[in-house]
Write a structure and sequence with these properties.
The chain is α/β, with parallel strands linked by helices. About 35% of the residues lie in helices and about 20% in strands. A hairpin with a 2-residue loop joins strand 9 and strand 10.
Length: about 400
């Protein structure tokens, strides 16, 4: 097993494993869930749907029916008045990561029952622990190369990483041979992650102005943990990359097929008397996005494309090929099966904890809930392709285009 870690990593193509067959859309950046993204868009600012402008009589108009304008909304409207309607991509990028008033900069806790959504690790500890076992298994099969970097994109509150570190520590992997690297844009979330993994929150931002990371601390298990704004800032080394429910929140271009050809969905000012400040409109002609992202063989009537997703996938592939490592992309749900691991957990739980565990297990695995909706995409260096054909990653079947 140890010899695998010495294999040459610099080779020409990536070897992928996927729980579901891959489609070309993944490499075009179309890692998205249309229904999910529509919901996200409507929560950012009041937007009226395409084609919902219905003429009404003056007697039906409610005076001053629009809600108060926020500073960010005023900024968006000024930008639209100056340069025309925004692409959905530009709109999402602004409302999500605007440093002053963006969603991830607002300071609210967006996870859990009191927030806007809940991710799989927050539902039940089994999810993160199973991922931790998978990480250890695949890392061990590649020869257990050290030091090991765990890199997570969009780590939320740090729950997934906390569960993974707990599992690795049980296998004897902790301390300085293991380091954690978070790619995070939210100052507020970085503090929550530090508190969860390290037990403290340090105010030491000024100490790292000359470093590529903006925060540094040490986990309760003695491993260093760093925070970065961009994946490119993370040191080049053998790494396990993790992205859970991350790609589906990246900004997208939304494109529709019409009688006149492909048109892009844009965000414009709603001048009507209704409650909405903004509305969806279609571009009058082709846009750069329709020319670049639409392929001649496209058969769908509506697509969503994320250029950022394509760039990130390419960067992950390049790093894994050149430096060695594994990437596991996870999105929405889990297809785990009942096993003895679950029943061992049950033995060590109190009655109330057992009820919570069973509820979480059903949420993650029930076909009517999240059980059939979870997608996994794993990247491995092509150097281990033949080995993985004989010993495929746990939980995956082999798929090649």
């Amino acid at each position: 097993m140890g010899s695998l870690s010495k294999l040459p990593w610099k080779i020409s193509r990536l070897y992928c494993h996927s729980h579901l067959p891959l489609v070309a859309g993944y490499w075009k950046g179309s890692i998205s869930k249309e229904k999910y993204k529509k919901g996200r868009l409507s929560t950012c600012t009041h937007i009226r749907s395409i084609g919902t402008s219905v003429p009404v009589s003056r007697s039906q108009v409610i005076p001053n029916s629009k809600s108060p304008e926020t500073p960010l909304l005023k900024q968006l409207k000024a930008r639209i008045k100056l340069s025309g309607p925004l692409t959905v991509y530009d709109y999402m990028k602004e409302v999500l990561i605007n440093p002053v008033a963006g969603y991830y900069a607002a300071g609210q806790d967006m996870f859990g029952s009191q927030g806007d959504y809940i991710t799989s690790p927050e539902i039940c500890q089994m999810f993160g622990e199973l991922v931790g076992v998978w990480v250890y298994s695949e890392w061990y099969k590649l020869g257990s190369p050290k030091p090991l970097q765990l890199v997570e994109l969009g780590p939320g509150r740090g729950t997934l990483m906390q569960d993974i570190l707990r599992v690795l520590q049980q296998f004897g992997e902790a301390g300085s041979d293991l380091s954690v690297h978070f790619v995070e844009v939210s100052e507020e979330l970085s503090c929550k992650q530090e508190e969860k993994l390290c037990g403290v929150v340090q105010s030491n931002k000024d100490d790292y102005e000359k470093e590529l990371y903006f925060k540094k601390s040490t986990t309760t298990g003695g491993s260093p943990v760093f925070w970065y704004r961009h994946l490119g800032s993370v040191p080049r080394s053998f790494s396990v990359f993790l992205a859970n429910e991350f790609f589906d929140v990246l900004p997208i271009h939304k494109i529709c097929k019409t009688e006149d050809g492909w048109r892009e969905v844009l965000i414009d000012i709603d001048e009507g008397d209704g409650p909405h400040h903004l509305r969806y409109v279609l571009s009058r002609a082709e846009t750069p996005a329709t020319k670049v992202f639409i392929q001649p063989e496209e058969t769908r009537d509506e697509i969503e494309v994320s250029p950022d997703a394509a760039v990130l996938c390419e960067e992950l592939a390049s790093r894994i090929e050149e430096d060695g490592g594994i990437a596991l992309i996870m999105d929405y749900g889990h297809d785990g099966k009942d096993s003895s691991t679950f029943r061992n957990l049950m033995k060590h739980c109190h009655l109330d904890e057992q009820k919570s565990l069973i509820s979480g297990f059903k949420m993650l695995t029930d076909p009517l809930k999240m059980g059939t909706r979870f997608k996994f995409l794993a990247f491995f260096p092509a150097a281990v392709k033949d080995f993985l054909k004989k010993h495929p990653p746990a939980g995956f079947y082999r798929y090649e285009d």
